[in-house]
Amino acid sequence: VPQIVFGHNCREAFTRLGHDWCDIYKVTDINENLSHTILNERELVSHHLSPEIMEEEGALFEKNHPDIKKPVVAVMLVDPDPHISKEFAPKIVRLMAHYPESTIYLCGCRRTEKEYLDILADHIRTEINSREMADRIDLAAYAFDPAHNYNPYKGLIARAKHFVVWGNSMSLLSEALYAGKTVYHYRYMCPRRHLTARGLVQ
Question: Is the Cβ–Cβ distance between 86 and 121 less than 8 Å?
């Protein structure tokens, strides 16, 4: 009988095998389960980031973006709703318009529909152009693809000044908070009041 079992249906599997699963350490939801059990943490989850990884990924980000306009705001996308992308665009452009120059960097994940990312990028680009700020504000976008040579996700955590987490992802939120910088949540479905009360997000 194993001591630790990973899997969404591990309880059912043990029942069918005739074992008592009460004495087994079960990881049913990976990050969430580990954080609940070990740390009694309900909003944030475990991750693998470290100062060494951040230093390495930050240097790699600079190498891949040597001329990027700073500061950078990283918009970490889970499931951007194309129906509200248009209302989001002026908000993010206004945030970055306070700087002489800046970059808005959209970063999708495995759960992000590329079509929706493209719609959001089009709305932001239109907003930048309508304000005649194309010379001051750059827009970059990354749609997750395992075949890409470079994934900027960790580099953004290391180098971005601000983070916007759009959607319901405890992992994205936890990893962005690891950088110790300003994190905004947008369209986040988990209980916001707990995160805000703890001073973690805006």
Answer: no
| Distance from C-alpha of 105 to C-alpha of 120, rounded to nearest angstrom | 11
Give how far Cα 35 sits from Cα of 41, 63, 107, 140, Å: 5, 34, 25, 33
The tokens for 72 are 């950078």
CA 172/CA 43 separation, integer angstroms: 12
Confirm whether pTM is higher than 0.90: no
Give the closest residue to 103 by CA, choosing from 176, 160, 60.
Answer: 160
| 162 touches 73 (CB < 8 A) | yes
CA dist 196 and 191 (Å) reads: 9
Residue in 143, 130, 141 with CA at minimum distance from that of residue 94? 130
Q: Are 190 and 170 in contact (CB under 8 A)?
A: yes
pLDDT in tens, 55-95: 999 999 999 999 999 999 999 999 888 889 999 999 999 99
